[in-house]
Amino acid sequence: MKCSEMKNYLIDYVLEELDSELQIQVNEHLAICKKCRGEILQTEAVIDSFKDSARFKPTPGVYGKISEQIRVAKPERPRIFGMPRSLVFALGAFLFGIVVTRSIDAIIVNVREPSSIEVRQEAPRKVPFSDTVEFYSVPAKNLARI
Amino acid sequence: MIDYTKIEIRGLYKKFKQGDEKAFKALYTRLSGSLFNYCVRLLGDWHLAEDVLVVTFTKLANSNLDERGNLKAWLYRVATNACYTLFRKKKTELKYYEQQLRSAVGNPGPDFVKELRIQRLLTELPEYQRIVVVLKFYERMTYQDIADVLCCPLGTVKSRMHQGLSKLRSMVKE
């Protein structure tokens, strides 16, 4: 094991949380490395200062404050057709929306379209006799040639 | 007669959700001590720690958690988030902690001095390192559990731990 790898195991080694195989490897490294031994000692000093420190407890009144604020879990709400009420209401609202939009559409269509269809017949358009016009629109000198 | 001490915390939570108030009391008895200690170490203030405890357990009571989730990690996460909110509002003051410690411990003997020293060390650390150090050294959580509490990758937890430890080592040396 290298010194760089040792950094990962310092805390767990001191807290004795390493698995046996790793612990053996760390011990082997510590036996030959003075620097890492020093680091272990420093880490131990830090962890030891936390080890036996006091553990505080909340005052008895805290639970009273909590129980004032909590609501005890309510029994399940009644179901309609085996489904939660909210789902049934949501489905009902959805269907109602569809019915309303369809009926509004039908009303709008009825207002736009007249009941009877009026067929208007347009008078036939007078189409100018284009060939004739072209014929007579040629210059006079060409007319003489014809 | 149900013996609540033999039921796991998940089971207690389930019982409470079915309407058993005693199960909630048992949950509180089991978890409040370590949670409160965690909050005191983070905040350095008894009263604020109690407020956080009230918020955390009230949220637990009003929650609807997935049965497969880690309840303890969830509780610590809620408490940590509440502490973060307080960190933003107020900086930890050691004077205030000293007063409260004096009233809690009583006579200012060697324990009192040691406690003050530990809290001073913790207060010197940035919050994100302090959280990891307290969870590891006091709550004896694994790195994976800490990662679950903080919702961050395992590598982040380890690097915060190493940064915190090297700072603590240099402070202890001094």
From TrEMBL, chain A:
Key words of the record: Membrane, Transmembrane, Transmembrane helix
Presence of the UniProt keyword Membrane in the record: yes
Where does the sequence pass through the membrane?
87-109
Q: Which domain of life is it from?
A: Bacteria
Is Protein biosynthesis there in the keyword field?
no
Cite the Putative zinc-finger domain residue spans from the record: 3-37
List the protein's name: Putative zinc-finger domain-containing protein
UniProtKB/TrEMBL annotation, chain B:
Q: What's this protein's family per the entry? A: Belongs to the sigma-70 factor family. ECF subfamily.
* Stored Gene3D superfamilies: 1.10.1740.10, Winged helix-like DNA-binding domain superfamily/Winged helix DNA-binding domain
Q: Which UniProt keywords apply?
A: DNA-binding, Sigma factor, Transcription, Transcription regulation
A GO MF term: DNA binding
Q: Where is the RNA polymerase sigma factor 70 region 4 type domain?
A: 116-168
Report the residue ranges that make up the RNA polymerase sigma-70 region domain in this protein: 27-91
Query: What NCBIfam families has UniProt attached to this entry?
Result: sigma70-ECF (TIGR02937)
> Does the record's keyword annotation contain Transcription?
yes
- Protein name per its UniProtKB record: RNA polymerase sigma factor
Name a biological process GO annotation.
Answer: DNA-templated transcription initiation
Matching InterPro entries? RNA_pol_sigma-70-like, RNA_pol_sigma-70_dom, RNA_pol_sigma70_r2, RNA_pol_sigma70_r4_t2, RNA_pol_sigma_r2, RNA_pol_sigma_r3/r4-like, WH-like_DNA-bd_sf
The reply to whether Transcription regulation figures as a keyword in the UniProt entry is yes
Q: Which residues cross the membrane?
A: none
Please name the SUPFAM superfamilies in this protein's record.
Sigma2 domain of RNA polymerase sigma factors, Sigma3 and sigma4 domains of RNA polymerase sigma factors
